[in-house]
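dumping this here so i dont lose it again. seq + smiles for zinc ion
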Amino acid sequence: MTSEGIYLSTTIPYVNARAHLGHALELVQADVLARYHRQAGDQVRSQTGTDDNSLKNVLAAEAEGIPVAALVDRNASAFEALAQPLSLSFDDFIRTGSDPRHRPGVERLWRACAASGDLYRKRYEGLYCVGCEQFYRPAELPGGRCPEHGTRPEPVAEENWFFRLSRYAGQLHDLISSGRLRIEPAARRNEVLGFIAGGLEDFSASRSTARARGWGIPVPGDPGQVIYVWWDALGNYITAPGYGTGGGDYGRWWTGADRRIHLVGKGVLRFHAVYWPAILLSAGEPLPTDILVHDYLTIGGSKISKSGAVPGSQTADPVELVERYGTDAVRWWLLREVPRVGDADFTAARLVARANEDLANGVGNLVSRVVTLVHRYRQGRIPRPGESPATADGRALAAACDRAPERLAEALAAFDFRAATAAVWDVVGEANRYVEHTAPWLLARAERDGDPAAARLLDESLALLVGACSELAIRLAPFLPDLAGRIRAALDDSAGQLLAPEPVFPRLEAAAVGAVA
Ligand SMILES: [Zn+2]
């Protein structure tokens, strides 16, 4: 069944530094879902962007001694340019600092919450983490340090605007526990329900223009205050399709979409699953339908710092990794090795080993073998498949191909990329087993010796293998669009025969690993 509309977003990173592999993880996951749904015939709008108005950008620019706008423009451009090396297919990219759609939408969202009576002024003293751009209660700070940044939040006292989050606790609980607002994996949903059950306190919705260094969107009617990140950064999800600037896209892609899916990292779950839905409830706008949560990457055993740097010799720069190992290998590691729950540790050696095992030896070897066999025994012409396979091995391979789409759909519905790639990989495994069991080279020898049954079986085995490789090209396309394209090209017989065999995925050399060390 195809869908009327799927809206799909990543979080928008603040751009105080270049992108690291953790950003690539979320972008690639979102890209797989977008490509998968487009392939299924769904109408999809996928978007990403950058959080330009963050105070962290101001601090990074001060540290570099350059204007904030220059730093934001440079780093936001680098994020947007990830589309090429990572083969991303997002439909929209919003830069909250410069996109003319953004500010009017944020102001409208603010006014809508104010009109609901949910914004009020209050004097506040608290412990504030600049890195998180949020206040913490002392009980939330193990050893007095921010759980995200390990830094000591500084005491801040000021009067600013507050949002009546407390009003929405009951509604949020009902929406999330009923699954109308679905949070995957379940452990993350329970975490959010636990947070709500612990009591929701009103939160600060603005900061003084002085503390924001004059950067950001002023509170409508109160120029001494700047709108806080929740309306500004989270607001991108609706300002990009046109909330606030009109046009039909907001009705088409937010209010009218069947599913509004946010991909988020575990560190910002609370803001997406509690603050953001409450803001939307207050503004009278539809909520997201799905929040899909991923964990974090470590690199060579170390946490990726907020500046993107990693101690030791490993690089965390996705562009550098793609230059060394190629788009397919980087995407494949992110999709095949990162678990649904739990952090994953990246090393270049793991990436190379996985690419060589799966892509070079697994699917690459299979496609080369099949194309070579078709050339050797049928002059590059693909035999026509029979009605149904005559052998048990043939039926097992056909069944593996038939099974793949449903398993893939189930895995992706559960936001489980490892299970999804494993479902595709069963076809590779079954096809390689089939080659060994069927031994087309023995059938060819029997054919030469005048055995007509062997000739028929050879036709059937080559047709089945080409069919399995074609199926792989289709199923792999959302995950590895580049490799899938090369497999399609290798199986293209529109000129009457296949092209001469060429490796679709050459082995990565160990030297490439050494280059990193
Ligand atoms: Zn922090």
